Amino acid sequence: MSQQNACAYLDIVGFGKFIEKDIEGALRLLTSYHARLASYHAKDDLRNFDYFLPFSDSIFIQSSKPDIFVAGLSSFLSDTFFTYNYKPRDYNTPNAHDDPAKVVVTDIIASIASGKKVTIPEYWFPLLIQGGISFGECHPIPVNAIINNKVCSIPNLVGKAVVEAVKQTDKIKGPRLICSQSFYAALSDKHERRIIKINDTYEILWPAFNFTDGNKVDDVLINQFNSLLLVAVNLWKDYKHLDSDIRIHYYESLKLIVRSALHYFSSNDKDLQAANDYIFRELEQVGLSLEIINDLMK
Question: Which pLDDT belongs to residue 43?
């Protein structure tokens, strides 16, 4: 019997290159979101996901409840983006301009042993997660695996929705979340303030799920938008000088944050104008050029 479920595919932007440069730094990215999941045990957040199956830097997720799933997944992306990237090291003043992820830390054990301060380099790579979502045939099935030389059963997800979810990520840059028409049709709440149509697909503006409905424009922007904007601006500033195939991901992060806020307030002309004015001032204040600001806000 066909099982109709939502399926999401997520992966960490740039993870392969991070592994090549420094495996310990790359592994920190995995432990960061695993720590976030561990906190779910004491919360109601677990109901958002029926299955959450990571492998390397990829994650496959299934849910039978699309409406709470889209909100829960957006919350997960927002939390990981802010918690890990909010100046885990001082991105405003990186230790190596040509390598912003590189920091110098004190090796406490070596320092004690030698009687003098010993420093070592570490890599703290930014955590950007992109993904695709679809809805349709998605079956959780048990499959055999070998762990520690023993055969055991582990869950797996198969079906057309799994394939479609992966396809949604083919052409996106940065931490964007794209969903298929089938997933959008399955939503009873269309989240007009938080989802936009792009050609034959839809983009879930996950930062906008961080905004509280009913609050005044300034309250949303100051308390909920600014924190995400600061992270995105700092990352863009530190990676904008690198190759275009790298810096595009950080520019798309910045565009996503701004686009989410502008779309969220777009249903009310007065609120949209207030949001435009506020965001323009903030972007100007953090030192972005007029050309960049205009591009971000168009």
Answer: 58
Distance CA 48, CA 1 (A): 23
Among residues 243, 31, 51, the alpha carbon closest in space to that of 124 is found at 31
Number of neighbours of residue 154 by Cβ within 10 angstroms: 10
Residue pLDDT, tens place only, 167-226:
999 989 999 999 999 999 999 988 999 999 988 899 999 999 989 888 888 888 888 898
Residue with structure tokens 């275009």? 244
Q: Among candidates 101, 105, 117, which has minimal Cα distance to 29?
A: 101
Could you tell me which residues come within 8 angstroms of residue 293 by beta carbon, excluding any fewer than 6 positions away? 280, 283, 284
pTM of the model: 0.89
Look-up of token digits 């070998």: 146
Q: CA 103, CA 122: separation in Å to the nearest integer? A: 5
Rounded mean pLDDT, 31-54: 77
User: What number of CA atoms fall less than 13 Å from residue 175's CA on the CB side?
Assistant: 32
* Tokens at 198, concatenated: 């792009």
Neighbouring-strand partners of residue 134 = 7
Give the pLDDT band (50/70/90) at residue 95: very low
From CA 210, how far away is CA 51, in angstroms rounded? 23
Region 252-266: mean pLDDT is 95
